[in-house]
Write a structure and sequence with these properties.
Length: 284
């Protein structure tokens, strides 16, 4: 429409992103899942105004969504999805529904509240493979985008990485869009992280050896050091989850080469490429 104001990136036309292959929304890779432990409407609206272009899904974690009134929760979910961001009530809440044999009612209410994405997991309870597969298929049939999750929340229940890889493949076959690797909200002592939160590369390698499509794995990485490791190892379009709301833009800057670690890699690659062509380097 003539005269309509069109917003645009603040620095458009001045600089190019150092990492050029960062996928833009809507995308099937490079997802950022933000964890929400109970944000109010004003805060979630502020978050969407600032960071919706870089967030793919917001997870209302634990069972926090059960503590909202119906109308307040519906408005919160509407605020998120209206900005082109998916929203899920999380996996732990869904485990309660399966345990109580109320998955159908849970999915109906999730739809009524406006959720477009659900998780299927057994991080706490035990699910046999048939029940897990049926839960994924039921949610897909109900019209939800399904994010399943592998791994246990209690380190004492840790499973072999080869078994988790098998679950990833099966979940994708049953219709899951992505499969989350469990790390909890702390990112320590669970899944691919040791008790200090450092990635265990041997465990990652063992897991990936059995996964048919690693691009469909979403790694929970609540700590900044974990995010840096995974972006440097797998690239800008690695799927990352359990990102604190206040870290969403910082993570996108890391992915795009606008933070020191990834900027240096991009700068060195450009310098070496130009040298190979016999071209003059960009001015320092």
């Amino acid at each position: 429409m003539k005269g309509e104001k069109v917003d645009r990136p603040a620095w458009e036309g001045v600089i190019d992103w150092p990492v050029q292959d960062r996928a833009r929304k809507p995308r099937d890779q490079g997802w950022t899942m933000v964890i929400d432990k109970g944000l109010g409407l004003h805060v979630i609206d502020d978050l969407m105004q600032v960071a919706a272009p870089v967030i793919d899904v917001v997870k209302l974690t634990f069972g926090t969504s059960a503590l909202f009134s119906h109308d307040l929760l519906k408005e919160k979910v509407r605020t998120i999805t209206a900005h082109g961001v998916h929203c899920t009530p999380g996996g732990t809440f869904q485990e309660v529904a399966i345990w109580q044999h109320r998955l159908g009612a849970y999915l109906e209410r999730a739809h009524a509240l406006g959720f477009d994405t659900v998780e299927v997991s057994d991080g706490t309870i035990e699910l046999d493979r048939r029940t897990r597969a049926e839960a994924i298929r039921q949610a897909v049939t109900a019209g939800f985008r399904v994010l399943s999750e592998v791994g246990k929340k209690d380190p004492r229940d840790a499973q072999p990485m080869a078994l988790l890889a098998e679950e990833v493949n099966e979940d994708l076959d049953h219709g899951a869009f992505m499969v989350i690797m469990e790390a909890r909200e702390a990112g320590t002592g669970v899944g691919i992280y040791d008790a200090s939160g450092h990635p265990r590369e041997a465990e990652i390698d063992a897991f990936l050896k059995g996964v048919r499509d690693p691009s469909r794995v979403l790694w929970e990485a609540p700590l900044g050091s974990q995010q840096k490791y995974l972006v440097l190892r797998f690239g800008a379009n690695v799927n990352l989850g359990n990102i604190a709301p206040e870290d969403a833009l910082a993570l996108e800057a890391l992915r795009s080469g606008l933070r020191g670690d990834t900027l240096k890699r991009a700068w060195l690659a450009d310098r070496d490429y130009r040298a190979g062509l016999g071209a003059s380097p960009r001015p320092d």
